[in-house]
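Hey all, quick one. A colleague (J.T.) asked me to put the zinc ion job into the tracker so the inputs and the structure tokens live in one place instead of scattered across chat threads. No bug as far as I know, just bookkeeping. Sequence used:
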Amino acid sequence: MVCTWVRTERTERTEKRCVQLLARGRLRYGCSALSVLSALYSTMPVDILALAAHRDDVELTCAGTLLKAVDAGYKVGILDLTAGESGTRGSASLRAEEAERAAKILGVSERRNAGLPDAHLQNSEETRRLVIDHIRHFAPRVVVLPFPVGRHPDHRIASELGRDACYLAGLERYPAAGSAHRPHKLLYALSYREDPVKPTFVVDISAQFERKLSAIKCYASQFDGAKAAGEIFPTGQDLYSLVETQNAHYGSLIRKRYGEPFFTHETMEVDDVLKLGVRSI
Ligand SMILES: [Zn+2]
């Protein structure tokens, strides 16, 4: 099921009212307020959750890895933090339709939108609590986050907000919806970064690249005729060929056609050095 869920003032008011009524023991099953609350608090466990600031960020940075996980039988979720209402091109409603089409191509179990303000993202008490609600809903083992350095302030803040929310979601007594859950692994998507950070690993997405490009092309309002996007600086090529060039570069780092790079702060464990891939000389 693909679902775009936006927290609005109305759902926020309903949630507060439900909590008050529940506290007083006056909420009856079957009332619409309770159905809103249960939709809010229900869990939809996934193996991997990709979290990003804007619709289309996930497609650009890690869609191949998500497709590969779905191909392997894992469940994948996406949490877009903003609706993209401040973007120069298109509109929030058009981007919602495009995001839904892209999610179908990626085969994700559920795509949600946190409804936070585009271009005004903050890592605050309020936004952490909201993101924790969503993380507990998805209860992922692995979370893909944006890299902590970025050209767009929303990308940097989404990285920090996502990381903080992943930690706090595991605190039993943190006052947010759902049961405590702390993801096992955080991966930072390193695509298009120019900082001198070597990827911790690259995922071979050669078999997924064409579908990744199809998912990116769903965002015609953003990318048709574009020469740059987000963290991708222009070179004169159209954006789609620029994405191919970049993904081919990451692939070459592991001697494959196409790849997506990731960074982790912690050291990767190797069990059998004889099975290490990627030729040295
Ligand atoms: Zn973005």
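Adding what we noticed when we looked at it: The pocket of zinc ion is lined by residues 53-54, 57, 152, 155, 230 (CB under 6 Å). The beta strands are 48-52, 76-82, 110-116, 142-146, 185-189, 201-204, 259-263.
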